[in-house]
Amino acid sequence: MKASSKQRVVVGLSGGVDSAVTAHLLQQQGHEVVGIFMKNWEDDDDSEFCSSNIDFVDAAAVADVLGIEIEHVNFAAEYKDRVFAEFLREYQAGRTPNPDVLCNAEIKFKAFLDHAMRLGAEKIATGHYARVRQNPGTGLYELLKGLDPSKDQSYFLHRLNQAQLAKTLFPVGELHKTEVRRIAAEIGLPNARKKDSTGICFIGERPFRDFLNRYISHAPGPIQDDRGRTLGRHVGLSFYTLGQRQGLGIGGVKEKGAQRGGGEHHPWFVARKDLDRNILRVVQGHDHPWLLSHRLDAQDASWCAGHPPLPGAYAAKTRYRQPDAACSVRSAEAQAFRLEFPEAQWAVTPGQSAVLYDGEVCLGGGVINAVDPA
User: Fold this and answer.
1) How many degrees, rounded to 5, is the angle at CA 128 between CA 126 and CA 134?
2) What DSSP character marks residue 171?
């Protein structure tokens, strides 16, 4: 590496293995690396589900092994105002938001980026499994999928804009998770075997219904099937998401020849929410027509290139960890777009993100607003 390419890079150290190896890789490339630990939740931080103190100890131990400075920064007020308030509004409205998407856009690549720039950083880096490249033809920065298809996190990063992408590095996006673990063990990182976090961004792995119950109002109501039969009671529409199978508290319908989905032993799925009448609609069978959609409309769009893609054939994800689905963009504007799918999509959920891809390039996406049944 040439001396001129050495940069001051501020790394978001979360206490996890991915950000730890990120810092190490940047050191190996000759950069001046500084660590920042972000504390973004305070309401019950001493609970068993959300203890940033433990994560900070792990992050500080990593910084000690690598020989880099680490700063503890509190973004709890920004998180509550920019992310959590919107998260609650969406749930109260009966939708199912994805807080990790908003957290990345508003905290990790806005509040954190701004703070890093004030520290004299030329770039920031995180442990996300994604990649950034500058297109030699257009000069635009592109967000690419991570090379490990089982860990790719571009879905959660689709709201990043040109200014953010230009300042961001994702070193582990070039690796598979197994290689990241191997590197961590090889250099003696104390968190080499630490389990990956799977909870809500910065809120942790807690009983979700109990947590949400503390913040939003709810009214119990009937659970009805597609024929209008009452099967039980729900505890509040906000606590359910389309496609949900577990936790419904209902059994099979004791009737032979049950229509559209099989007999009494077929599982039940949440299919619709009737907000006006406070009814949770459920259906039997994974492939019930109410669970299938060929078209969606999205709003609050964000495009990595700064402008929407042209109409045409692309691929999309309507939820994380689903395979890319072939789709057509019928119309795309700065703030809204419509997608059509030749193959019906399962349990497309308002409030979740529809993210658009052209091959390995993530173009951006938006929040699913309306869904047309198959």
Assistant:
1) 85
2) G
- Spatial contact of 353 and 98, defined as CB atoms under 8 Å apart: yes
- Rounded Cα–Cα distance for residues 215 and 45 (Å): 16
Tell me how far apart the alpha carbons of residues 295 and 209 are, in angstroms, rounded to a whole number: 30
More confidently predicted of 299 and 1: 299
Q: 89-93, 121-125, 180-184: lowest mean pLDDT where?
A: 89-93
CB 338, CB 354: distance < 8 Å? no
Structural class in CATH, domain 218-284: mainly beta
Extents of the domains making up the chain = 7-208, 218-284, 290-373
Contact 218, 238 (CB under 8 A): yes
Query: pLDDT of 322-355, one tens digit each?
Result: 999 999 998 889 999 999 999 999 999 999 999 9
CA distance 187 to 311: 48
Lowest mean pLDDT among 6-15, 24-33, 185-194: 185-194
pLDDT number for residue 51: 65
Q: Which residues are 274's β-sheet partners?
A: 279
The CATH homologous superfamily to which domain 7-208 belongs is HUPs (3.40.50.620)
φ, ψ of residue 224 in degrees (nearest 5): -125, 150
- Inform me whether the pLDDT recorded for 259 exceeds 50: no
pLDDT at 252: 54
Task: Tell me how far apart the alpha carbons of residues 9 and 122 are, in angstroms, rounded to a whole number.
Answer: 6
CATH code, 290-373: 2.40.30.10
Q: Residues 296, 370: contact at Cβ < 8 Å?
A: yes
Euclidean distance between CA atoms 314 and 291, whole angstroms: 23
Query: What contacts 24+ positions apart, CB below 8 Å, involve 5-9?
Result: 5/30, 6/30, 6/31, 6/32, 7/31, 7/32, 7/122, 7/123, 8/32, 8/34, 8/120, 8/121, 8/122, 8/123, 9/33, 9/34, 9/121, 9/122, 9/123, 9/124, 9/125, 9/169
3-state SS assignment for residue 316:
strand
Q: Which residues are catalytic?
A: 103, 201
